Amino acid sequence: MFEKLGIVTNIWANEIANGKRFDDLMVEFGANGFRDMEVREGEYLRNSEFGRTIQKIENAIPEYTNNEFKTICNNMWNSGFDPNETNHPVLFREVADFVEKASGLTLSYAMSHPWLSKPFDIDVDTQKIIIAKKLAYLLCPSRARLRLVDLESEDEIDHNAAVTNLKRYRSLLPEYPMIFAVENAKQSATLTLQLAIAGGAKLTYDETNTYRDDGTTLNPPETFWQKVKMDDLTSVHFKQKTEEDVLSEVDKGYVDFKAVKQCLKTGNYEGDLLLENAPTTHSLRDAINSRKYLLTC
């Protein structure tokens, strides 16, 4: 199972801050067997050369109809793409070079977004999701996936607003087929699962987020595993937490990885498994050591 372990790209934050290129890290990790990658939005990404390319893409998107941009995305991942046939040949040549490096990898897109709260401006909120969906599609037209995680909404949330948001987000860009998912963060995994199902979204599960700093849980993991169906999951994240916070390598701590693995195997889980260690300046070494540890579980 863990032979196919992938990664969330925010584990590269320290290395990118020290000048490493996003695409070089992507190629290096892919060559070492980490072929599923979730491109996680964040300051570290925006400060990378690929993040600056993403900003240029976002600025260019309004100049294309939905179908025109979708066609560019599809063509870029197939042979015969000509950037000169677009309105931004320099930009899309740059993107095409990135796509060539990503050949053989499965990339998805994730960002923080307050989906658990009623938006202040529904039009602005809608446009953010449309842009995110287009970026997710650009990264992998054959299996596009967008994940949202809410790090802003407080404990008291409006369940109806959350479900309404998810249904609206799902309805946007129906011509762009993709998996739409949310992740448990500050709220319990069982509640997030309940809202995701009601809103027609999949769940990205991170058992580490269930644990508080003192080792107590927002909800008992066994309660979650009793409620969840494997079809409700699209991805499972792996990192370890102790009283000292999230570790840079998966090791002993609050999360029982052997129990998680058994639940996934029993349910014939078919989604991806993504490593999300705390960032260091040697993330590949940490990832390889983490994979070795998980393989022993």
What is the residue-averaged pLDDT? 96
Class per helix and strand makeup:
alpha/beta
Biggest sheet details: 8 strands, parallel, barrel
CATH topology-level name: TIM Barrel
The topology string of helices and strands comes to: EHHEHHHHEHEHEHEHEEEHEH
Task: Please give the CATH class.
Answer: Alpha Beta
Order of strands across the widest beta sheet? 1-2-3-4-5-6-7-10
Poorly predicted regions are none
Count the strands?
10
> What's the structural domain tally?
1
What is the alpha-carbon Rg in Å? 19 Å
Model description:
With 297 residues, the chain is α/β, with parallel strands linked by helices. The protein has one domain (2-295): TIM Barrel (Alpha-Beta Barrel), CATH 3.20.20. 43% of the residues lie in helices and 15% in strands. The strands form two sheets. Strands 1-2-3-4-5-6-7-10 form an eight-stranded parallel β-barrel. It is globular, with a radius of gyration of 19 Å. The chain starts with 5 loop residues before the first strand and ends with a helix. The relative contact order is 0.14. The model has no long low-confidence stretch (mean pLDDT 96).
